[in-house]
Amino acid sequence: MYTFGQSLTDDVHFLDHMEYGIPIQVYIRNLHTDIGFIQGICKEFVKVNNLYYSRSLYTFISRPGY
């Protein structure tokens, strides 16, 4: 189970959120950028709301129950 505000870093974190429909929040330099559901992932990007976010530039936070 993921906690509200937990940082997502590993592939398994992203896969769990995508599979179970757990929302995430996307940040860059502590600025909120987006919130939604993961539509796809690969080694370098996470797709949220039809946008691709670089895993090396953005921070992804779990928002269960949001």
Structural features, described:
By secondary structure, the chain is of the alpha+beta class. The chain contains 1 helix and 7 strands; from the N terminus they run βαββββββ. It has one helix spanning 11-20; strands spanning 7-8, 24-28, 31-36, 38-41, 45-48, 51-54, 59-62. It is globular and about 25 Å long. 15% of the residues are buried. The mean pLDDT is 94.
The CATH class is: Mainly Beta
Largest sheet report: 4 strands, antiparallel
What value does the average pLDDT take? 94
Number of domains: 1
Low-confidence stretches: none
Number of strands: 7
Order of helices and strands: EHEEEEEE
Helix content: 10-25%
First and last CA, distance: 15 Å
Estimated structural class: alpha+beta
The name CATH uses for the topology is SH3 type barrels
**Overall CATH architecture:** Roll
Quick synopsis:
The protein is of the alpha+beta class and 66 residues long. Helices cover 15% and strands 44% of the residues.
